[in-house]
Amino acid sequence: MKTTFSLIRLVVISTAWAVATAASPSITAQKQGNSVRIVAAGVDPAKRSLIERSSNLVDWIEMRSFTPGSPVIGIAETPRSQASFFRLIQDPSPQSLVAASTYQPIQSGAIPGMSITVITNGQISWSRGFGLLAKGRPELVDGDTLFQAGSISKSLTALAALRMVEEGLLSLDEPVCRQLTSLAIPGRNGTNVTLRHILSHTGGFRTIPYSGYAVGSPIPTPVQILQGQPPATTPAEYSNGPLGTWVYSNGAYIFLQVLMTDVTGQAFSDLLHELVLQPLNMGRSTFAQPLPADLECNAACGHVDGAVVQGNWRINPGLASGGLWTTSTDLAHLLVGVRAAYLGDADSIIAQSTAREMLRLHAVGDAPWGLGFALKVTAGVTEGFGHGGQTYGYVSVFALLVESGDGVAILANSNDPSSVKPVYDACETAYGWPSDLLP
User: Fold this and answer.
1) Are residues 228 and 252 in contact, defined by beta-carbon separation less than 8 angstroms?
2) What single-letter DSSP state applies at residue 194?
3) DSSP code of 277?
4) Residues 261 and 375 in one domain
5) Lower CB count within 10 Å: N or C terminus of the chain?
6) Smallest Cα–Cα separation from 187: which of 220, 227, 233, 154?
7) What gap in Å lies between CA 179 and CA 119, rounded to an integer?
8) How many H helices and E strands in the chain?
């Protein structure tokens, strides 16, 4: 049901209408077809641009009736978006600006729901959920809502592997075949691939997309995936490309998953809980696949082309590559923890030397890459680090600037990676971050 606010009134002024508010800045609404476009004045130019860009679709104000020369009533799509928009007009703070940017993709249907956590000065500044767990259902996303994080899982896997290097359980530069007992790596490089190759996507593997498996269908083991054996639906993995050349690889990380379980004898989800999730206070996160039943009630359902995924989500047995369920707050804890180690803080999850090696430039592909993270590098200096993720029905991104400690984690239940860009851009605008924060 649509609701009007009694204080909202659009008054005809030539071809524009002034929106009555109790405080500056000046906001006008210009008619465009059956909708209105909001124009802001008297605010910082960057923020003005964001207000206008966030407000120029029917999701903010719809013209329900219009007679030239008569008052016009503006009705927002929902009471929640009404409240947020008029709060934005009266208080264009960074948080309000970022919050405003979410409604355009959410109410246009591009994204049913999302979770955002902003980090400033190396600390979590705020965290909030927006939209719905599933299209057509009333449950709202909140700060504890779980999303599939896709390839962001690789950053956590890399961190766990480097902890095992520190403990003497793995080596960065010895061939992994010496400890890999469940299977061999096929191809001409099989006996030469190292952990460093795997973590930096330089192990000569191919790029093979993984979309997971439908709930209720047969689920392959990691070894079956790597060997291309049923019920796996992807071809076998092998290393024939030139070592040292960057080619993004999901399969390489699944080989690492098998290696880590071969060496420790532990289930991968238990190992990651012990090495990463628990030490970094990522209490809502899990690598358990399928998702445990007690966590399903506050898990966002995946969406593909606007429709809920059959079974609500897919199961990804390639845990190291894309099996993480998490919250934006938990991802922020990870970013803060890695930065703390890089800066040499006491009691960090890894030694400073290890963190420096992790965030050192190792290869250049679609971005500069370290070990498990994409990097922002200028003149040989690492200025930022992060990763993106996309799995069946979900997209995600997180990044952090090293010096300032500013960054963001965004999770969304949509299959369109471009749908989170307006929100990411809004963060950069609202907080004055460099436009290329995302590695």
Assistant:
1) no
2) B
3) I
4) yes
5) N
6) 227
7) 39
8) 12, 20
Please give the structure tokens belonging to residue 39.
Answer: 């124009």
**Dihedral of alpha carbons 238, 161, 280, 430, sign:** negative
Number of domains in the chain: 2
The C-alpha atoms of residue 237 and residue 228 are separated, in whole angstroms, by 7
Count other C-beta atoms under 10 Å from residue 349's C-beta.
Answer: 21
Query: What is the amino acid identity at position 401?
Result: L
- The reply to whether 37 falls in a domain is yes
pLDDT of residue 333: 98
Q: Which two tokens stand for residue 28?
A: 């006008």
**Residue 22: helix, strand or coil by DSSP?**
coil
**pLDDT tens digits, one per residue of 392-424:** 999 999 999 999 999 999 999 999 888 888 888
Dihedral of CA 225/229/232/234: which sign? positive
188 and 86 both lie in a single domain: no
Identify the residue whose tokens are 């970022």: 98
Neighbours of 11 (CB within 10 A): 13
Query: From residue 213, how far is each of 147, 194, 318 by CA, in Å?
Result: 16, 29, 10
For residue 259, give both structure tokens.
Answer: 């290696």
Tell me: cis bond preceding 25? Omega within 30 of 0 counts.
Answer: yes
> Would the pLDDT of 53 be above 60?
no
* 170 assigned to some structural domain: yes
pLDDT of residue 40: 53
Residues 58 and 178 in one domain: no
pTM metric for this prediction:
0.83
User: Comparing 130 with 13, which gets the higher pLDDT?
Assistant: 130
Q: Is residue 79 part of a domain?
A: yes
pLDDT at site 39: 54
83-117 as b/e, with b when 16 or more CB fall inside 10 Å? ebbbebbeebebbbbbbbbbbbbbbeebbbbbbbb
pLDDT for 403: 95
Q: If pLDDT is split at 50, 70 and 90, which confidence band does 275 have?
A: very high
Structural domain range at position 249: 147-431
Instruction: Look at residue 233 in the predicted model and tell me its pLDDT.
Output: 95
pLDDT in tens, 82-121: 444 445 545 567 887 787 778 778 877 789 999 999 999 9
> Would you say residue 308 has pLDDT above 90?
yes
**What is the secondary structure of 297-308 as a DSSP string?**
GGBPPPEETTEE
Q: Percent of the chain, pLDDT > 70? A: 78
